[in-house]
Design brief:
300 residues; alpha+beta; 3 domains; 6-stranded mixed β-sheet; 8 helices; Transposase-related; Transposase_IS66_central; Transposase IS66 family
Length: 300
């Protein structure tokens, strides 16, 4: 033999069920005439039951990977040959919920006191009735709460809150407000494709260019000349957008009227976007304490 050639194969062992039997001694005390049974380990509550690993995997698969209940039941049967009843899995979820109570409080506290946090809400149906899922998150923590009311917002917040311009967020006290420009880009896309307004596409390009500039200079000062040039382009787009709307007839009002910069009354999404969002929006790019990917703008 002149040598050895090695090849390694990494694999996962076939899953199998392990059974651990716990035996508790039963003894009789002649002094007190009582029968004494030794204690079982914590969590061993029934003559036959599933263990903590199965319980942990069940909760993990369902809530981390969003596997539906019927598929989760099939997964355990295919891999391990066991059938987890719905009531059993529900009990596991309740145990996890109770166990994580203190962790939930820690997450909520961290989110409330964070310098920057994101807020959002969405509706969904439960038993035929509308419920609202509220989320407050940072880069490292996410807190959810469910309420039948959309306006059920968190209190005790501080720092800067980033949101989608829903007016109820402005009722929060003790915070600065910032708008998520992912929503801005979505609205600009609708104005470009639906309303065919030329300024919106130009604003979209400018926001993306400014974002790339911020990414490129993430750890360096952005040249003042570049900021000035992009700001001048931004102001021109605003002028073009307002001039474009001066050529349009007023739209019938279907909601709260919005005055543009020249005093004209309109319900146009384009002018509303310009006067209420984009007017302040471009300067978000230089707010380096805010998350880069959020494309946010501080509102006073």
């Amino acid at each position: 033999m002149i040598g050895i050639v090695k090849r390694q194969v990494f694999d996962i062992p076939l899953p199998k069920i392990e059974v651990t039997e716990h035996q508790a001694e039963v003894k009789y005390c002649e002094c007190c005439n009582k029968t004494i049974t030794a204690a079982f380990p914590a969590g061993v509550l029934a003559p036959v039951q599933y263990g903590e690993v199965i319980r942990s995997w069940s909760v993990y698969y369902q809530y981390q990977h969003f596997i539906p209940e019927d598929r989760l039941q099939q997964l355990f049967y295919d891999l391990y040959g066991i059938q987890l009843a719905t009531a059993t899995r529900t009990g596991y979820n309740r145990i996890a919920f109770d166990t994580l109570a203190s962790f939930e409080e820690s997450v909520l506290s961290a989110v409330k006191t964070a310098a920057v946090k994101n807020l959002d809400e969405t509706g969904f149906r439960v038993a035929g009735k509308t419920q609202w899922l509220h989320v407050a998150s940072t880069k490292t923590a996410t807190y959810y709460h469910i309420s039948p009311k959309r306006k059920s917002l968190l209190d005790g917040l501080s720092g800067t809150v980033i949101h989608d311009h829903w007016k109820s967020y402005y009722n929060l006290g003790g915070v600065e407000h910032a708008l998520c420009n992912q929503h801005h880009l979505r609205e600009l896309k609708a104005i470009t494709e639906h309303d065919k307004e030329p300024w919106a596409q130009a604003m979209t390009r400018l926001l993306r260019v400014a974002l790339r500039c911020r990414h490129f200079n993430e750890h360096h000062a952005i040249p003042v000349a570049r900021i000035k040039r992009l700001t001048n382009i931004y102001k021109k787009i605003i002028r073009d957008g307002l001039a474009y709307h001066e050529t349009l007839p007023p739209l019938p009002c279907k909601g709260k009227q919005v005055d543009n910069l020249d005093g004209q009354v309109t319900t146009s999404c384009g002018v509303y976007f310009i006067t209420n969002k984009t007017f302040y929006g471009f300067f978000m790019i230089w707010q380096f304490h805010l998350p880069i990917m959020m494309l946010s703008v501080i509102y006073e």
